[in-house]
Amino acid sequence: MAQITASLVKNLREITGAGMMDCKKALIECDGNVEDAVAWLRKKGLAAAAKKAGRIAAEGLIGVMTNAASGAVVEINAETDFVARNETFQDFVETVAGVVLDQGADMEKVKVTTFPGTAHSVEDQITQLISTIGENMQVRRVAGLSVKKGVVASYVHTAVRPGLGRIGVLVGIESNADAGSLLKLGKQLAMHVAAANPQYLATGDVDAEVITREKDILAEQARASGKPEEIVDKMVEGRLRKFFEEVVLLEQEYVLEEKTKVSKAVENAAKSMDTEIQVTGFVRFALGEGIKREEADFAAEVAEAVGG
Asked: Residue 290, exposed/middle/buried by CB under 10 A (0-12, 13-18, 19+)?
């Protein structure tokens, strides 16, 4: 019997797109012959993922799961929004969120973790889903959030079922206050994050390079308006505060309370609970953000069809 090496398995996997364990099994069945193993996988329907692997997957679902003082959020993509309504796909996203909650937000670790209820990995499970459902899919990103004492609250926008939707948010709150009250506040803040899309928690978290670049832009704008140099600095400081109000969570106007900053809303909540409350972090995933989608040229497709 031929020796089935890791490089041989890797080679077959790159050719077919099939799962690691399936590739190993195919090579064992075919005594190490790669061509025969490709045919074996195709017969089993496990090589179908290969042709689909290059297609853009920008739809799918965001999955969120929390457990008292910790939470996890994942983005798993598919090619069409139709898949998001598939219960098997929904179950998969929900289960992977649970894996991240248990194992931590390490993508490589998550991929090789045994998928609950099976003998194979999360990565192999998604390969099987690709073959079954017929669309390219990928676990695009994972994140986690935890607090020492308090709660991690969540909110899912346009939910197809609890914990699954198109936008998922986690907010961490540290406090000695009642957990129920904190969760209520946390969900409200998570709803704000979903709507306002802040980039940073506090002004101190904004990268120095970002601030420098913004100051340069604002200064050039001020000079272009013909203002004297002694006024430019004051204008830049004023506009920089406006910039912080747009991108920093604690500086934003609270969507649930007009003319009140988020920081003030948290302060008011702390007073009503007679204790200190600190927002320690947040995570916001929006489905497909940052993915470059292909724009089909319908006219060219028609012309090609007519010409063919």
From this structure: exposed
The structure tokens listed for 292 are 């470059």
Structurally, at CATH architecture level, domain 207-247 sits in Orthogonal Bundle (1.10)
Here the tokens at position 60 are: 């799918």
24 and 4 Cβ atoms separated by less than 8 Å: yes
Residues sharing a CB contact under 8 Å with residue 107, sequence separation 6 or more, in sequence order: 139, 141, 142
Q: 6-47: CATH homologous superfamily?
A: Ubiquitin-associated (UBA) domain (1.10.8.10)
What is the C-alpha to C-alpha distance for residues 120 and 105, in angstroms, rounded to an integer?
19
Q: State whether residue 35 is helix, strand or coil.
A: helix
pTM of the model: 0.76
Residue 116, CB-side half-sphere exposure with 13 Å CA sphere: 12
Q: Which residues contact 275 (CB under 8 A, 6 or more apart)?
A: 175, 176, 177
Structure tokens at 174: 């540290």
Give the pLDDT confidence score for residue 45 in this predicted structure: 66
Nearest alpha-carbon partner for 110 in 75, 61, 62, 161: 75
Q: What is the pLDDT of residue 149?
A: 95
Fold exhibited by the domain 59-202+249-286: Tetrahydropterin Synthase; Chain A (3.30.479)
Q: Which of 65, 62, 72, 64 is nearest to 146 (CA)?
A: 72
> Taking the domains of the chain in order of start, what are their residue ranges?
6-47, 59-202+249-286, 207-247
Taking Cα atoms as reference points, which of 70, 118, 122 lies closest to residue 99? 122
Calpha distance 227→224 (Å, rounded): 8
pLDDT along the chain (308 residues), means of 10: 82 76 88 84 63 61 96 94 92 98 95 95 92 87 97 97 97 96 97 96 94 87 82 86 94 94 97 97 93 55 48
Those residues with Cβ within 8 angstroms of residue 124's Cβ, 6 or more apart along the chain or in another chain: 19, 20, 21, 22, 115
**pLDDT of res. 115:** 96
